[in-house]
Amino acid sequence: MKQTATRDMYRIWTALRGARPAPERGQIDPVNLSSILQYIFLLETAEGRPGRIRLAGTHICSAFDAELRGRAFQDLWRPEDRHMVIDLLDTVRDEAAAVVIGASEDANDALQAEMVLLPLRTSGRALDGVIGACVVTARDGLLRRPVVHLSLETQRVSWPSGRTHAPEDRMAVPALVHMGARREGRFFVYDGGRI
Question: Are 97 and 166 in contact (CB under 8 A)?
């Protein structure tokens, strides 16, 4: 993570969750998040339904020039990326994974965004929420027009619990595994050098 706000969000979330897969929503105290509050968002998620924005900080709403509360999270993305974004939300919720996304504005490569998605418990034992931070920047420091849609550039999935891979699901692991790839949830990972 390159942005201070996304790193701070991850650090605070890690401290709150302790040894559990995710913290409780009631543990989220805006006072502890005051330095990054403008970058934070909360999503409601549920099995089979995409995430809905419950709360979005002023930086995010200003970048889109809109009040985002109540909107579907995937609607912030260009249509061809929406299925992948929904899959990433499912990975956060179903596998207690952390996801870091790099994005650009679909008509303007000079605008970049970094986002972290983290699981959250909002009702008892279920991981049915996502807390995250999003920082939108322009190369010259000025956002001259609102973001229309984000374009998914990079995504990195990790399991903060220390697990090295996702549990096997009902899908058969294809022959790619025998070609040096390993299964990480819904993804296949090929080991290589650092970028």
Answer: yes
Measuring CA to CA, how many Å separate 47 from each of 27, 35, 104, 128, 177?
Answer: 23, 32, 28, 8, 28
Evaluated on CA atoms 88, 89, 90, 91, the torsion sign reads positive
Q: Enter the tokens of residue 48.
A: 């089979």
What pLDDT, in 10s, does the model give residues 29-83?
888 888 999 999 999 886 656 789 999 999 999 999 999 999 999 999 999 999 9
Beta pairing partners, 72: 52
Three-state secondary-structure class, residue 13: helix
- Residue 163 tokens read as 């697990």
Of 81, 78, 80, residue with least CA distance to 149: 78
CA distance 2 to 191: 22
Residue 69 and residue 61: Cα distance in Å, rounded?
Answer: 9
